[in-house]
Specification:
Strand content: under 5%
Pfam family, one: SPW
Shape: elongated
Largest sheet: none
Number of domains: 1
Number of strands: 0
Distance between the termini: 28 Å
Organism: Dactylosporangium darangshiense
Protein name: SPW repeat-containing integral membrane domain-containing protein
Keywords: Membrane, Transmembrane, Transmembrane helix
Structural class: mainly alpha
């Protein structure tokens, strides 16, 4: 085995041989992988929440309250989810995500959207984010 003088890592053995096989990784690795998938779905739902103002035409319909509610909530969820992806032990941020998804579920009533595509969008995205926040483990041991 030859090592690099820069990183003191083995560079002669191929990476697929150096990596541990799945049976040696254990259940902690599988839980971390499942958590990352759920957090990625949460992040993508938050991005959709921000971007969906364009195809649904919130601003064109004069619904600035709907636009700002979805934009601020979506950006905040995306930031919180990014923090959770980078720092898995950030336990409190799971509750923030759950609270913001709860806001998405009650926003149509509070802001009086009426029954429209924005209402359906907020409810669907809110449920997706709430389910992902509930299923993602909030404290991962490394």
């Amino acid at each position: 085995m030859t090592t690099s003088f820069i990183s003191d890592q083995d560079f002669t053995t191929p990476a697929h041989i150096r990596a541990a096989p799945p049976e040696e990784r254990g259940p902690a690795s599988e839980a971390k992988s499942a958590s990352r998938v759920l957090l990625t779905v949460t992040f993508l739902a938050a991005v959709w929440l921000v971007v969906s103002a364009v195809p649904f035409g919130y601003i064109g319909a004069g619904r600035y309250d709907v636009f700002w509610s979805d934009a601020v909530t979506g950006i905040t969820i995306a930031i919180v989810t990014t923090i959770r992806l980078l720092h898995p032990r950030a336990v409190a941020f799971g509750w923030v995500t759950g609270g913001l998804s709860g806001w998405l579920l009650v926003a149509p009533l509070v802001l009086q959207f009426g029954w429209s595509t924005s209402t359906a969008n907020d409810i669907i995205v809110g449920l997706i984010i709430l389910v992902c926040a509930a299923l993602a483990p909030s404290d991962e041991r490394e």
